[in-house]
Amino acid sequence: MIPRAPKGTDDILPPESERWRTALRTFDDLADRYGYQLALTPIFEHTELFARGVGEDTDVVEKQMYTFEDRGGRSLTLRPEATASVVRAHLDRGGDGILKVAYAGPMFRYEQPQAGRRRQFLQVGVEYIGEPSPEADVEVIEVGYRCLQACGIGDASVLLNSIGDPEDRVAYRDLLFRFLDQHRDDLSTEAARRIDTNPLRALDSKQDETVLEGAPVPIDHLGSAARAHHAAVEAGLRRQGIPFVADPRLVRGLDYYNRTVFEYQAASYQVAQAALGGGGRYDPLAAMLGGSDTPGVGLAMGVDRIVLAMPDVVDAPALDAFVVWTGDERLEAALVVASSLRAAGFSADLDLSGKSVRSQFRAADRRRATAAIVVGSEWDEGLVTVKRLASGEESTMTLEGTQAWLKNR
Ligand code: HAM
């Protein structure tokens, strides 16, 4: 028996993988346009990075990490997220100045798999490090929102909240603790357990919504700096035309945040009320890792979820040209033709196996090519026949003519 892919992992193959490619290209293009350069960080890290950065009593660190000992006896963990790594990398090289980076890659969390909730999943994200201004928060939120829009998820919206600064939360934490303690018996075991370890984490418990309706929320207990910051973020989002909805109980599942937190939702993705993406400001993170104070804000989105929410549009032709060749001796000519088209910037492919012309045309259709470029007897005069596959219309021309034809099609 052929071994199967492990539970909660997927093989993403054509034609489905084209949707993934569209999402990845859309994100890459947007990140580039907003000035985010590429960051590549390790897929495994010292376990301590996440224990300290993400937080010991978060779900992610408590129950979801793939942790193992390597042959040298080090405790390593497959990254459950990338923000802690990017901040670590920035601190490693001195932690000075502004770092604006984008990333795309697999993350790992041991979760109960379902649609859009995988054990290995693909995240895209940006981190804007070194900038305390609320305009950075607005920019980051905008990148994710525009990415979802460009992927065709027109009904995406932003849920927004502020959880204040750590010092604002000291008094608030007591207040919340008292409320939760009074309702201890009405809360789920999971939420009740959080009361003593991390009460803020109990606040977004989906199964305790009715009890939590009367709970004090962080946004009503912001210090003046956090309040002014939040007002500026809201004003910035309005200015940039990004629709958002206030969600006072949004706290996020990772411990490094302060002030702005947000998530993206869409009616077209309603699986288990889960978010398409999320992020926030994480000014405390650098110090949690042992570095000097460094502000930062970022977002990450799950590509597994984006592709589920993307509309089923018929994609544009996948290939510009499929080169069809006749007679055994014309394979080499066909390779020269394909390579010259590729060098000129067109996508082109061909069948190498010497199948019949009919089956080569079938392959051209399968790849949704705009044109078949036929290398037949006319090649002896340096000519090819270009056939528009949608209409069947044909004309014979030089190779340069083919390029002009493809450009003006
Ligand atoms: P997160 O909310 O844990 O944030 O994950 C961000 C997104 O990754 C989620 O909204 C979801 O789309 C996707 N995701 C998370 N877990 C899974 C899973 N098991 N299966 C499929 N998709 C999943 C972070 O990871 C932060 N690092 C975001 C951030 C960046 N904050 C600041 N900068």
Care to describe what's here?
The chain is of the alpha+beta class and about 400 residues long. It folds into two domains: about 15-165 and about 225-310, BirA Bifunctional Protein, domain 2 (2-Layer Sandwich), CATH 3.30.930; about 320-405, Anticodon-binding domain (Rossmann fold, 3-Layer(aba) Sandwich), CATH 3.40.50.800. The protein is built from 15 helices and 16 strands. The chain has helices at about 15-35, 45-55, 60-65, 85-90, 135-150, 165-180, 190-195, 200, 210, 225-240, 285-290, 305-310, 330-345, 355-365, 400-409; strands spanning about 35-40, 45, 65-70, 75-80, 100-110, 120-130, 155-160, 245, 260-265, 275-280, 295-300, 320-325, 350, 370-375, 385-390, 395-400. The strands form three sheets. It has an eight-stranded mixed beta sheet, with helices on both faces. A five-stranded mixed beta sheet has the order 13-12-14-15-16, sandwiched between helices. Strand 12, helix 13 (about 330-345) and strand 13 (about 350) form a beta-alpha-beta unit. Helix 1 packs antiparallel against helix 5 (about 135-150). The mean pLDDT is about 95. Bound molecules: histidyl-adenosine monophosphate. Histidyl-adenosine monophosphate (HAM) binds near residues 125 and 280.
